[in-house]
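1st attempt posting a full record on here, be nice pls
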Amino acid sequence: MQKTPEYEWDYYPGLDTEESFAVFTMYLSLRPRSIQDLAVLYPRRSVGTLRNWATNAFWDERAIAYDRFLFKIQCEARVTETKETAKELAEKHTELTRHMYTIAKRELLKHHRESHDSEYPVLKLDKLTTLVKEVISLQRLISGQPTEIIGDHLNTANLNQQDLDDLDRLLKKMAENSDGTTDPGSHIH
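the predicted structure (as tokens):
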């Protein structure tokens, strides 16, 4: 009893001889595939003989199956590579967001102290507000939440230490949500 090959392009007893199969593997490597080009690479047989082998052993059909198999492997490799790249980028973005959060928190506290110690407003508030909005937006993006921020102004002069602590807890909660450790809706009662 003859063993059926695992793949269509494998050696097939009854269809292939050792010589014709060796030539078939050469045919598989050609781009584009052509019996004329194969005859140049394998001059021991005539073009007519090579065509008969190709027809009788279904070279074109087997070559298509081989190409599909290779394409599938290449696609799977690309998907794996894309997932790995996306994961690396997400980790970098998360780390960057944490650094931005630390800077925003430090600057908010500094601004809060300075605004209470001075009659004149601190001029960097617009940049600080932009940074806080960006941190919140990125943290929401990481956790899969909408990134739209409602309201354009953050007035820290009116915030007391308790308000700043509440903001800090909110940002930490958002960071936890982005890590997947807390249910995103758990803060809503």
